[in-house]
Input
Amino acid sequence: MADKKIFELHANVCKALGHPLRIEVIDLLQDKELCFTDILEITGGLKSNLSQHLSLMTKKGILKTRRDGQCTFFSHSSKKVAQACRLMREVLVDNLKNHKEILANI
Amino acid sequence: MADKKIFELHANVCKALGHPLRIEVIDLLQDKELCFTDILEITGGLKSNLSQHLSLMTKKGILKTRRDGQCTFFSHSSKKVAQACRLMREVLVDNLKNHKEILANI
DNA sequence: TAAATAGTTCATAGTATTGTGAACTATTAA
DNA sequence: TTAATAGTTCACAATACTATGAACTATTTA
Output
């Protein structure tokens, strides 16, 4: 099983989706780029925390950055992540619907 | 920010993709259902560990199970997860390619 | 009924992620 | 040059996740 490595790398990229704040950022950046301060203002919380999450996503190749003067702008490096994210959101919604139906049938 | 809840739920589903063994299982079940023992034989490791990962994926609504005699068959509850997973794999591959190019240009 | 197969559950120890605040760097404006 | 803005980095404590083995349940076969 030498090719277990690919699963590890793959899981590693997928992990980037596994945090509420990071999902929120992926959502925010769907159709535009935003600078750190904008994102912080929208999401709330500590700047150090946000910075670490953004840095993680950038390291994993999910976001890219562009510096303009004092501001650092963040955007998706590929549309695929946002697409994947939307699919997972649909899975969630489907699950919630099923759950509702099951509850309704009791 | 009352709708933070959706990000939490969403991240929670996405987390299911964030482990090498779980990615491997998602891959394995792309086009067929398999029983526990089959999956264990392919992936290796401890049955208790596999059982826990499968249980987690089932709880998150990503897999569904079907019991036939002694055997429990696992399959995807929706094609969307596998799709999302394939997209993330493409992101990984793109990143690796970029990385290679960057290295080549030094 | 007894033994075997197929899996689940549980406790626990080890590891990885996360949030926090303080200290730091870089760019711009006064 | 000084102060302000925009972000990053670091150390550490709290929390969550993971792997392991033993004990357990359910179904089938002998």
Remarks:
- The beta strands of chain A are 34-35, 63-68, 71-76.
- The mean pLDDT of chain A is 94.
- DSSP finds five helices and three strands in chain A.
